[in-house]
Design a protein that fits this description.
This protein has 101 residues and is an all-alpha fold. It is built from 6 helices and no strands. It has a domain of 70 residues: Arc Repressor Mutant, subunit A (Orthogonal Bundle). The N and C termini lie far apart (49 Å).
C-alpha cells in the first residue's frame, strides 16, 4: 500500500505510522519453544520422561540425574499431570511418539 504513494515523505510517514500501530511481537526463548513443543514439560521433565521411556525406575532415574528418589517421583507426577496421563507406560509411549527416545 505504501508503495503506491508517489511522494517519498508521505510514504515514509505512512510506513512509520503503520509500523507504530503493529503489536509488538515478543520473541520466545529457545527454552519456551521447546516447552511448548513438548506438552509444557521443562527440560528436566523431558529428561525424566526419556528415562521413564527407557524403563528406568524412580531410583534409577534419581541415581542417573543425581537427585533424590522423591524428586524423581515428583517429576514423574508432574509429567503425568501436565500431559493428562495416568501411567508411566503412557509417558513412555508419548516420549517415543514425540521423538524423545
Amino acid at each position: 500500500m505504501a508503495a503506491t504513494l508517489a511522494d517519498a515523505p508521505t510514504r515514509e510517514q505512512f510506513l512509520q505510522t503503520a509500523l507504530a500501530t503493529l503489536p509488538t511481537i515478543k520473541a520466545l526463548r529457545p527454552t519456551e519453544v521447546a516447552k511448548r513443543a513438548f506438552g509444557g514439560l521443562t527440560g528436566r521433565e523431558r529428561q525424566v520422561a526419556m528415562l521413564v521411556a527407557q524403563g528406568k525406575t524412580s531410583r534409577e532415574i534419581a541415581n542417573q540425574l543425581v537427585i533424590s528418589e522423591r524428586t524423581a517421583e515428583v517429576h514423574v507426577s508432574n509429567i503425568l499431570g501436565k500431559l493428562g496421563f495416568g501411567t508411566r507406560a503412557q509417558i513412555a509411549a508419548w516420549a517415543v511418539e514425540v521423538g524423545l527416545v
